[in-house]
Design brief:
54% of the residues lie in helices and 4% in strands. It contains 10 helices and 2 strands. The longest helix has 13 residues. The chain is globular. This is DUF4248 domain-containing protein.
C-alpha cells in the first residue's frame, strides 16, 4: 500500500461533489489560491469588466473563462472545500472577500484585459495572507481597500 499525505491524496483522488465538504479555514483557501496562480506564473488571465458598475445581481453572476476565479474553481481541493462555481459572487462568498477586495483582484480597470497569474498571486499574498482579521483590520480594509 502506498501512503500519501492528506493534501496529496485530495489531488490524486476523485472528489465526490455531493460528499460533505472538507473544512478549510479562510486563510488556507486564499493561500491555496495564491499557490495555484504561482504554479504557472506566466499564464495570462482574463479580467472581469467593470465589476464596480454592475448591479449586485449581475455582478454576482459575472463569469469569465480563464480568470483568476476559474483557476481556483478548477482545483479539486477548493471545490471539495465548498467552492461551487467560478462566478464573482461565489468567489466573494467562498474566499470571504468584500466587493472592493475582490474587485481589486479581478477587475479590468486595474490590469487591462489580461493580467499575469504571478501579478495576481503577488497581490493576493500582499493584501490577504498573513494579515490580521480583527475588527480594526476589517475596518481599515473597508475604508482603505
Amino acid at each position: 500500500m502506498k501512503h500519501h499525505e492528506f493534501d496529496q491524496l485530495q489531488n490524486l483522488a476523485r472528489i465526490n461533489q455531493y460528499y460533505p465538504h472538507q473544512s478549510m479555514p479562510r486563510e488556507k483557501r486564499i493561500q491555496r489560491w495564491a499557490e495555484l496562480l504561482e504554479a504557472d506564473p506566466q499564464r495570462l488571465l482574463s479580467t472581469l469588466h467593470e465589476t464596480e458598475y454592475q448591479p449586485h445581481a449581475v455582478r454576482a453572476a459575472l463569469h469569465c473563462d480563464n480568470s483568476a476565479i476559474s483557476v481556483a474553481f478548477n482545483d479539486p481541493v477548493l471545490r471539495a472545500a465548498g467552492m461551487k462555481n467560478d462566478t464573482y459572487g461565489e468567489a466573494k462568498r467562498f474566499f470571504e472577500l468584500s466587493d472592493r477586495q475582490l474587485h481589486r483582484i479581478v477587475c479590468y480597470c486595474h490590469f487591462g484585459a489580461t493580467v499575469s497569474a504571478a501579478t495576481t498571486a503577488s497581490y493576493i499574498r500582499a493584501r490577504h495572507i498573513g494579515r490580521p482579521q480583527g475588527i480594526w483590520a476589517r475596518l481599515r480594509d473597508i475604508f482603505v481597500g
